[in-house]
Write a structure and sequence with these properties.
The complex is a heterodimer of chains A (about 110) and B (about 280). Chain A folds into 2 domains: about 55 residues; about 30 residues. Helix content of chain A is about 70%, strand content about 5%. In chain A, helix 1 packs across helix 2 and helix 2 packs across helix 3. The relative contact order of chain A is 0.06. With about 280 residues, chain B is mainly β. Chain B folds into 2 domains: about 160 residues, no CATH class; about 110 residues, no CATH class. In chain B, the strands form 4 sheets. A 5-stranded antiparallel beta sheet of chain B has the order 7-8-1-2-9, with no helix packed on it. In chain B, strands 6-5-4-3-10 form a 5-stranded antiparallel beta sheet. In chain B, strand 18 and strand 19 form a beta hairpin. The chains are: A mainly alpha (about 110), B mainly beta (about 280). The interface between A and B is medium-sized, with 13 and 26 residues. Strand 1 of chain A pairs antiparallel with strand 7 of chain B.
Chain lengths: ~110, ~280
């Protein structure tokens, strides 16, 4: 019984995503007419999708909108990551020292003054 | 190479009574003077400089080669820097040795940036000015150092390679000691035959003064730490027959008036003392 419901719940998901053929949709409709559990699950799924669409700012969407990474947000997090890296490097250099420059740079130099 | 430079410098400065002076200032960032001093001496005098901090030991030997109105300053550096700590908490040091040279006019000042050419403000440097003048009969090297910051470990030393050495020889057997015989010897000159007498018995020897073999230690070689070491090669001259000289041995030491002993084949002991020749 449980395995059967699992299969129908997957079919409900696929139907709401528009992925079922006519034959599969007909079979699902026939099952939903007879199964209150699966018809309730379908209603719940629809409500969840409506909530997601509302939160994405498009309550009248025909399908669930895909999450969009906005350019500003991406730039903000890139800047934050670079800042954290620089600060961590600076602290680590102060604590343990860095690899230093080339050997020649570390050697004494004589300049006529 | 170092010896060749030293010989060239000595040869170029062989003028009568020339005296060379290295004037040194050690300066920290912000123009704060840590120490000042001078090293002077006859032709061929080098300057040995040392600075020790918590994270670096810098030692250098400065030599000069005069060329007309200018002078080439050559420096051999031997440095140790604290590179970090091991997993067991022990200090890890980087050791390096290298050479630098620059040409400047007499009286000019060279700035030696000990921790590399500055990109912004330099951390620490020394100012080195070279002067030459007439010695007026003064042949001894001289050193003076005034350390302003007592926390600084800074040293200046005059390095002079002896052109002659006074060697005092005694023969010793049990409680009997011969009278001292003194010889002025020149390093790498031909061997000299000497006769020492003790208790009515005469001992003939051939002695020659030589320079020591180059030290196996890189630091000793770079800083010429054995500059005032000489070796006395002793050979028993050939008896009438067979006509072959017998090497007796070599005794080496600094010109510091310390007696050094060399057993002779006949049971006597030769005691040699090396000192600077009088009149320096």
């Amino acid at each position: 019984m449980s395995d059967g419901h699992e299969t129908w719940l997957k079919q409900i998901d696929a139907e709401l995503d528009g992925e079922l053929s006519l034959l599969e949709r007909a079979a699902l409709a026939k099952h939903l007419a007879a199964c209150s559990h699966c018809s309730g699950a379908r209603a719940s799924q629809l409500e969840v999708r409506v909530a997601v669409a509302r939160s994405a700012g498009d309550p009248h969407a025909r399908v669930v909108p895909r999450p969009i990474i906005r350019g500003r947000a991406l730039a903000f997090w890139v800047v934050v990551a670079i800042g954290l890296g620089v600060a961590g490097g600076w602290l680590a250099h102060g604590r343990w020292g860095g690899p230093g420059g080339s050997l020649e740079d570390s050697r004494a130099a004589i300049v006529v003054h | 190479m170092l010896g060749a430079v030293a010989s060239l410098a000595a040869a170029a400065l062989q003028g009568p009574g020339t005296r060379v002076t290295y004037r040194v200032r050690v300066v920290e960032q912000g123009d704060r003077e840590l120490a000042r001093g001078a090293v002077s001496g006859p032709a061929g005098t080098d300057l040995r400089f040392a600075l020790k901090t918590d994270s670096a030991d810098i030692e250098a030997l400065f030599q000069i080669v005069p060329q007309g109105d200018s002078v080439i300053v050559a420096a051999e550096f031997f440095t140790k820097r604290l590179a970090g700590r091991s997993r067991r908490g022990l200090a890890l040091w980087e050791q390096d040795s290298y050479r630098r040279a620059v040409r400047l006019a007499w009286g000019d000042t060279a700035r030696v940036h000990l921790f590399g050419r500055p990109r912004g403000a330099s951390r620490l440097w020394i100012e080195l000015a070279l002067e030459r003048g007439f010695s007026g009969g003064e042949g001894r090297p001289a050193e003076e150092l005034q350390v302003v910051d007592a926390a600084s470990d800074i040293r200046l030393e005059a390095v002079v390679r002896p052109r002659r050495a006074r060697v005092v020889l005694n023969l010793v057997r049990a409680d009997t000691v011969s009278g001292p015989r003194g010889f002025d010897l020149v390093p790498d000159a031909p061997a000299r035959r000497v006769q020492l007498a003790m208790a009515g018995r005469r001992t003939n020897l051939e002695i020659a003064l030589t320079r020591p073999e180059p030290s196996p230690s890189a630091r000793d070689r770079v800083l010429a730490l054995d500059a005032d070491v000489v070796c006395l090669r002793v050979v028993a001259p050939p008896p009438p027959s067979p006509d072959v000289a017998q090497p007796v041995g070599v005794v080496c030491g600094r010109l510091n008036d310390v007696a050094r002993r060399l057993p002779l084949p006949g049971g006597d002991t030769l005691v040699a003392t090396f000192t600077w020749p009088s009149g320096r």
